[in-house]
Design brief:
Layout: H1 16-25, E1 30-31, H2 38-46, E2 68-72, H3 80-89, E3 95-99, H4 101-105, E4 126-128, H5 135-150, E5 152-153, H6 155-159, E6 166-167
Parallel strand pairs: 1-2, 2-3, 3-4
Antiparallel strand pairs: 5-6
Helix pairs in contact: 1-5, 2-5
Family: Belongs to the complex I 20 kDa subunit family. In the N-terminal section; belongs to the complex I 20 kDa subunit family.
Membrane topology: Peripheral membrane protein
GO molecular function: 4 iron, 4 sulfur cluster binding; iron ion binding; NADH dehydrogenase (quinone) (non-electrogenic) activity; NADH dehydrogenase (ubiquinone) activity; quinone binding
Amino acid sequence: MGVDQPLGSNFITTSLDKVVNWSRSRSLWPMTFGLACCAIEMMAAGAARHDLDRFGILFRASPRQADLIIIAGTVTKKMLPVIQTIYEQMPEPKYVIAMGACACSGGIFDTYSTVQGIDEALPVDVYIPGCPPRPEGLLYGLLKLQEKIMAERNTFGAAIGLGEVVSEA
């Protein structure tokens, strides 16, 4: 039992997971959400020199259209409920990138009003260290997020309510 004749050069066989993951990883829409100096570097990554558009990454202004939130800068305890509300408004599947030392670990601000890492409140997928990190660091973090998305399984099944997404990372 098998294929008697080859399919030819115009056919590609793959799994539905690979097609869905490929299309989702190549069309990330991050939320424009900058909190401090790291936001300047995030804007520089979207500008002409680094041009995130060539990767299919388009910044969105609404959480209902975004599937990625980049926490760029210092998170205060006063701002944390706003960030959590925006995260909850994002559709599934959703991803989080912590950009900069302040978002990753509180940075130099070891005070009562600063959250010591956004991972206390949100599930972070990629950490980008630095104070502030260069635009190339954000680009590298986005490429790592694409690799993580490509390693997921049952993404289409989870989208239609059949089981959960299985991450191989």
